[in-house]
Each structure stands twice: as structure tokens, then as C-alpha cells.
Amino acid sequence: MISQPFSRLPKARPGDHVAILSPAFAAPAVSEAVHEQAMRRLKEFTGLVPVEYPTTRLLGASAEARANDITAAFADPTIRAVLATIGGDDQITVIPHIDREVLAANPKPFVGYSDNTNLHNMLWNLGIPSFYGGSTQVHLGAGPHPDEVHLISLRAALINGGKLELTEPGESEDYGIPWTDPRALNEFGLREPSEPWTWTGPESIAEGRTWGGCIEVIDQIALADRMPPTDDLAGSILLLETSEEAPSADKVKRWVRALGERGVLEVAAGVIIARPPVSEMHSPRPSLDERTRLRTDQREAVVEQITRYNPNAVVCVGVPFGHTRPQWIVPHGGTIRLDGMTRTITADYN
Q: What pLDDT, in 10s, does the model give residues 200-217?
């Protein structure tokens, strides 16, 4: 089992301040209207008060400047949680400039996904649990309203705590309306019915602390030699998802296979694979049959590799977290229970 000691983080209360940061890409600079709608909705649906930092709306901010904002947000005793506006692609360069001692001495919840896998991993190595998912720009600011499963899990992560059964919303979109289009403020993207989740492995219960994130970013973390020791991941529940770049099944297979060769799959108790995006905003949308095939190919490739390295792992594929909407925010460094008998997933937000 995981021997790493983890902090227990106090919950916020309505009226408390939360930091809104852009640790990777400054999405608010692309559309301040979407960002400001997100800030209004955050207050409306949680009662929390957003506090922005110098680089929150600043395109092209240096890695050092973004790291300074992260350190400052954790150091400020009036800030009860830290939320990312969105992901990006260069947060790996930010991590060395963050003051680890400040974060370790001032643990608080962090909410984000995608390139924020870098910061989640750093916090995990410091024994600070966080919450994987949530983008103020995508899941709060865009569209006619936030999705209910997103609000439920956001409140649980920041305010209410408790245990929640993750459920299938029944519909999904790979991406929304471009933020520069005025319709982005009041329309969802193209949504389609979602498929039932796929369960493999033994009909047993796997329960443990979670670790993982966007698998393209995990690849970078491994190359930068920032992975947790494999022994520290023993008994964990792995969270794996792919980005809006919609990598092929072959690429995903190689990444998962590499985790197997590293020993990560072997020591895990279970694996949760997200429903992957298979269409890209700036490319022709594949047909329904092609989208179904792409998701099927990725599912089969991932399951094949996990089964090869750990046939005793309980596996669920298709859960809506990561690069999808509606989206559950899930514990990272917290506990998730995978029940292969009842085919249910329960997340602990305490």
C-alpha cells in the first residue's frame, strides 16, 4: 500500500477566497467575456470569492512569473483553494521555479487538469491531495450553464466533502464553441449520447489513493525524472486520460505499455480510463461510425496492455473526467473505490 503520508485539507466556506491562476496557458486573455462569466458563476454556485493574480490573464508570461503566482497563492493564508483557468503545454518548465517548501508548509486544494498534471504530480510527491478536473474557462465560463455533475464534484472538492458515486451523464462533447465566438457564452458544443462504461479484470473491489492524469503529460514527467517512486504507487488507483489532440490508439498503447515496463501497472490495484476526445476543433469532425471506432480502438489497446502487465487490476474505461464535458472532478491523492462486482465507482472528497 502507499506509504506516502498525505495531508488532510480543510474545506472552504462560502465567502472564502480562492485563487484563480493560469499556471500553463492564460485562457482568459483569449476571451475575457468567457472568463468573467466563469467568475460570476463561481460566486453564484459556490459562494466562493475568486482572486486573480498577475499572470491569470497574461499571455506569454514567463515560467518564473507563473511559478511566483502559484507560490504566492499557497503562501497566502486567506486563500483557501487554487483553481486553474485551463491547461496548456509548457507547465513542465514552471515546476522547477515553484517554492516546494512553501507549498509543503501551506497545503490547500488545487483543481485543474490536462497540463496541470505537472502540478498535481508535484503536490502528490509533497503529500498534498488535489482534485483532477475543472477548468474555469471550459466548465464554468462556457455554455448556457455549468453541468450538474461538474458542480456537484466541484462543491464536494472545495466545500462539502463526502463520498459520491460517479455516474454517467448520458451525453458528451469533445470541445465547445470557440471562445471568440459570442455563442460560446450561451451554447454548448456538439453533444452526442455517450456509451456505457467498460469493466474488465476480476469481479472484486479495488480501493486506493489515486495518481495519474493526462498520459501525454505523464510521458514528459517521466522523462524529466519527476515520477513518484514506483513502490509508493503500490495499491493505487491510476487515473489515465488523453488530451484534445486526440492521439491514436497506437500512441496511447505505447504510453500505457511504458507504464507497464516501469512497473506502475503491476503495482496498481485498479485503473480508470477516461472517455477520450476523438475529434479536434480545427479539423473536420469524423463520422459517428469513425468516432465510435476510434474510441473502441483506444479502449481495446489500453485494456490489452493493462491485462498483460496486471490481470488482477480492476479496470473501468469511459468515465467522464479529463478532456470531456460533462466532466466529473475526481480526487488525485484522495481515495477512489472501484467495485468490479456492482460496477460502481465511489470517490471520497473528504
A: 999 999 999 999 999 999
